[in-house]
Each structure stands twice: as structure tokens, then as C-alpha cells.
Amino acid sequence: MDITIIAETNDDGLHPVTSQMVAAAAALGSSPTVLCPGGIATDSAASIDGVGAVIGVEGDCFSSFDGGSWSTALNSAISGGTVFAAATPNGREIAARLAAARDIPVIQDATGVSSGLTISRPIYSGKAMEKVNVSGDCILTIRPNAFSPSGSGGSASVSTVNHSSDVHVTVMEAIAKASERLDVSEANIVIAGGRGMGNIDNWSQLESVADQIGAAVGASRAVVDEWGLSHSIQVGQTGKVVTPTLYIAVGISGAIQHLAGMRSSKYIVAINKDADAPIFGVADYGVVANWEDALPVLKEALSSL
Ligand SMILES: Cc1cc2nc3c(=O)[nH]c(=O)nc-3n(C[C@H](O)[C@H](O)[C@H](O)COP(=O)(O)OP(=O)(O)OC[C@H]3O[C@@H](n4cnc5c(N)ncnc54)[C@H](O)[C@@H]3O)c2cc1C
Asked: How far is the CA of 231 from the centre of ligand 1 (A)?
């Protein structure tokens, strides 16, 4: 199968989802071509196992993100076939624009693929899974962390092409919120707190466990709204969608809007004093207890690992 992958890059180079997209393509029997917008991280892309070729797409338009110009420039470098992009805000926009330009379907947020082409993805905020079958080429976005990454022993050939396009939207300034903490949507482990944590003074106890295990700290909307925490850590329908290997929910009831953001985590551990809390419906491991009792025990157990 002929697959082209639009690499996802950030200030650190290649985003891990790029390697995960290669694994998804490999599951379909493809050795994909990876396009690196702006020519960023071509060597890293070439070192991913299973990559057939890497093309750095260079051009003035890649100096800041503009979905319109990026997709036009990238489109010129795609010969045909199916295209994968990451299910991130930028990837989704590029995917939609490419699909319109190529007049082929777009399927967003895939969490599974099998030959055919059959695609699985969560719908209705994760309340149901949908399986769709596409005949012919399509554009597909892949949810970060839904696939294990490919290995890193590859040595694909790297070439460069020059394609640019008129920029219509220029990012004048982007100010990253100063935080030493991991981003919830990037982290492998997330420990998230809810209203059951009592009040903001107890938040440091969650952070201290997070520091111990290298986790990001997430939050329910209730505490973001009520305790003035940054919206960037909110998990859920109106926050971020996370798919870490381990999600620890502390004092979170498990409202459907929260589950929408975390139910596809690989392992879910819930600590809640109410045995009937809905969060236990999606948890792999549940601790029915006050967090005041459970967190110190968890911390102690982790420190002896
Ligand atoms: C349109 C819309 C969008 C929304 N988007 C989001 C979203 O993106 N993310 C989100 O999270 N919510 C979202 N919500 C809000 C959502 O419906 C819930 O109100 C919210 O998730 C509840 O947060 P919570 O679980 O922290 O609080 P609560 O529902 O109040 O639950 C607190 C939990 O803590 C437990 N608890 C209490 N004390 C302790 C203790 N000492 N030890 C252990 N457990 C304890 C309780 O048993 C309870 O289960 C949205 C709502 C709407 C209408």
C-alpha cells in the first residue's frame, strides 16, 4: 500500500507520533515515505525502522504554521496514495485541507487500522467505537499513543524538495506558558486530580507523586474552573485528550466529559472513596479509599521500586 506520512515536529524535533504512524503504516504492509515540513528532523525520520524514504519539504511558508500554505506546499510533494498525519491540531487541519484538495475522504483520530482499509476510531467523545471501511485513497489522522512506536534502526534515503505557497495567516508571537511540568498530552504517565482532592492546598501532594514517577499532572474541569488551575492541564471533552500508558485518577468521579479525554489510556488506576463512582467503570485497577490514605501508600510503594 502506498502511504505518505506527514511528520509531526515541534521545537524538540520529531514528535513521537511520527514513529507511531510508521508502525501503523507497517501494519498495512507499507514502507511509507515520510515528508518533513520545513526539512526539520529528516535524519531522525530516516532512522525510524520501516521508513521507505524521507523527503524534506523546504520553503519559506514553513517558518511558522499556516494550515493553508503548509497543505498546499506538502500536497505538491505527495505523488498519490493514502496520507497519514497526526491527530493533533496542526495535523488535523492539514489532513482536512489535503482531503479537500485531493478530493478524497478524510478520517480523523484513528486508533486502529487493518488492511482493507478498515479504520477504528472513538466517536461521541469516546462513548462508542466506530469501524469504517474506505475503498480507495484517503487521508487519515492517527491519535498519538494509539500505536506502539517503530524501532530506531532504520537508514532510509533522505532527499529535499522545495515547495512553498503564499502564507495567509502568520503567527506573530506564541508565548508558551512557563512550566517545568510535562505536558499531559505528551506524557507516558499522567496523575490527575479532581474535586475529591478537597482544595488547592492539597495539590502539591499530587505533584509530589508526579515528580517521583516522572508523570504529568492532569485535572478535571471542576478543579480547573474552581481552583484556577491552568486549562492546559484539563483532561476531557473540553480539555485535552490523553492516551498515556498509565493514567492515575485521584478524587475524580468519572463524568462522561472527563472519560472522553482519558478512557483510551492503556492502564487506568482510580482512587476514589465512593465504590460506585463511574471512574471505576473504565479503571483497570481501583482503590476504594480516601486519597489521604491511599496516596502516601502509593508514594511509599513507588519509592521502594
Ligand atoms: C459541556 C461540558 C464539557 C465538560 N468538559 C469537561 C472536561 O473536559 N473535563 C472534565 O473533567 N469535566 C468536564 N465537564 C464537567 C464534568 O461534567 C464534571 O462536572 C467534572 O468532570 C467533575 O469533576 P470531578 O470528578 O473532579 O468532581 P466531582 O464530580 O465532584 O467528583 C469528585 C469525586 O471525588 C471523590 N472524592 C471525594 N472526596 C474524596 C477523597 N477524600 N478521597 C478520594 N475520593 C474522593 C468523590 O467520591 C467523587 O467521585 C464538562 C461538562 C460539560 C457540561
From this structure: 15
Q: Atom 48 in ligand 1: which residue has the minimum CA distance?
A: 253
DSSP 254: -
pLDDT in tens, 63-105: 999 999 999 999 999 998 999 999 999 999 999 999 999 999 9
Q: Element (H or E) spanning 187, and its range?
A: none
Q: For residue 223, give the nearest of 259, 196, 204 by alpha carbon.
A: 196
Indicate whether 120 pLDDT > 90. yes
Strand partners, 234: 219
Out of 257, 271, 293, 297, mutate this one to test ligand 1's pocket (max ligand atoms within 8 Å of CB): namely: 257
Pairwise CA distance, residues 279 & 270, whole Å:
7
Q: Is 252 in the pocket of ligand 1 (CB under 6 A)?
A: yes
Q: What is the CATH number of domain 3-176?
A: 3.40.50.620
Q: pLDDT tens-digit profile of 13-36?
A: 999 999 999 999 999 999 999 999
Q: Is 196 in the pocket of ligand 1 (CB under 6 A)?
A: yes
Residue 126 binned pLDDT confidence (cut-offs 50, 70, 90): confident
Residue 125 Cα to ligand 1 midpoint, Å, equals 16
The cell numbers describing 237, all together, are 471533552
**Domain boundaries, given as residue ranges, for the chain:** 3-176, 181-303
Q: Which of 185, 201, 221, when mutated, tests ligand 1's pocket best, judged by the most ligand atoms within 8 Å of its CB?
A: 221
120 lines ligand 1 (CB under 6 A): no
Quickly count: other Cβ atoms within 10 Å of residue 49's Cβ.
Answer: 17
Give the pLDDT confidence score for residue 177 in this predicted structure.
66
The three cell numbers of residue 298 are 502509593
| CATH of the structural domain 181-303, one choice from 1.10.720.60, 3.30.1360.40, 3.40.50.1220, 3.40.430.10 | 3.40.50.1220
264 lines ligand 1 (CB under 6 A): no
